[in-house]
Amino acid sequence: MKHKLLPLSETMHYILLALREPLHGYAVMQKIERISNGSVVLAPGTLYGAIENLNKHGWIEPVGISGRRKIYKITTDGMKILSIEHDRLSHILSLYEEGEIHEEM
Amino acid sequence: MKKCNMFFNIEKEEKWLNEQLQAGYRCTNISWLGVYTFNKTDKNYVMRLDYQGYLPKKKHQEYKTIYEDFGWDYVEGYSFGGIQYWQKESGEQNDIFSDRESKGNYYKRLMGYSLSLALMSLFFTTMILTDMGFSGLYHEGLWSMDGSLFWKAFVFETPFVLLKLAPAILAILFGCSFYKSYRNYSMV
Questions:
Q1: How confident is the model at residue A100 (pLDDT cuts 50, 70, 90)?
Q2: Of A15, A52, A59, B144, which is least packed with CB atoms within 10 Å of its CB?
Q3: Cross-chain residue pair A44–B67, CB shorter than 8 Å
Q4: What is the mean predicted confidence (pLDDT) over B91-116?
């Protein structure tokens, strides 16, 4: 059965991508703002809830503490989810490209 | 400045608080009895109310740390659950939720909260009413009194009757606030 968090929301997707390196919450937000070219700016309630959710499903895990901040990193299960999403999005992209060929014809 | 108020709807409370802040105030304390303390300020502040169920101490600390990193000040709230009051200087990002999913989850938490309070009030209502019934709200002898004596006794007893009916009134208020959260949830 398909997991209830799939397909990933934009927020969850970006967090999983960002946590391929270990980071604490605020740094996750900063990194996402950077890698999304400023288009995704997470608010704290959204970030906290998403981290909770991803942690609960075992897709990310705490790997350390820096001061009062908890540091998280993606798990192997999380990497599997990213690869499922990668295939889904590549397929959708391929449909976009097909569409362009038909229009040219 | 101190102001007293009572709310059964978190969104109304948030709106009221922000109206006070727009008049050039900053909220410094909220007591559970409904006393809000404000200080005059020349800066612009905004407040956002979140609702969280019980969080273990460590989780609550993590929750607070993330908000504080984003520049929000914790005005009031408890780790055993309830409304969490956040305040910050008005800026580019004034919201605590940035996507539909988390806003929807927020309304779901509110629904659970008002539903549990409504059910609890309903439970007390049935307990009181099975104990004495509607007819037992006033003393039996009251209805056989006449004239001014009746009215005096009636007026005297009414506050106590309202007190007995308080759980029923609360059940209705929390029921309304459940319905409002549900409406908001379905519109997210």
A1: low
A2: B144
A3: yes
A4: 93
Tell me which of A14, A39, A48, A69 to substitute to probe the interface with B (most B C-beta atoms closer than 10 Å). A48
Q: What share of chain B is helix, strand, coil (3-state, %, to 5)?
A: 60, 20, 25
**Portion of chain A with pLDDT greater than 70, in percent:** 93
Distance of CA B15 to the CA centre of its chain: 13
Query: What is the average pLDDT value for chain B, to the nearest integer?
Result: 90
In B, minimum Cα distance to A53 occurs at B102
Q: Classify domain A10-104 at the CATH topology level.
A: Arc Repressor Mutant, subunit A (1.10.10)
CB contact under 8 Å between B98 and A25, yes or no, is no
Per-residue pLDDT tens over the stretch B146-166: 888 888 888 888 888 888 888
Residue of A nearest to B93 (CA): A43
The pairing of strands B82-89 and B45-52 is: antiparallel
Which residues of A fall within a CB distance of 8 Å from B70? 26, 29, 43-44
Hey, where are the domains in chain A?
Answer: 10-104
pLDDT at position A104 over 80: no
| Distance from chain centroid for Cα A32 | 9
For residue A100, how many other CB atoms are within 10 A of its CB?
A: 9
State whether ipTM is beyond 0.90. Answer: no
Residues of B with CB under 8 A from a CB of A: 48, 50, 61-63, 65-67, 69-70, 72, 93, 95-99, 101-102, 105-106
Strand partners, B76: B85
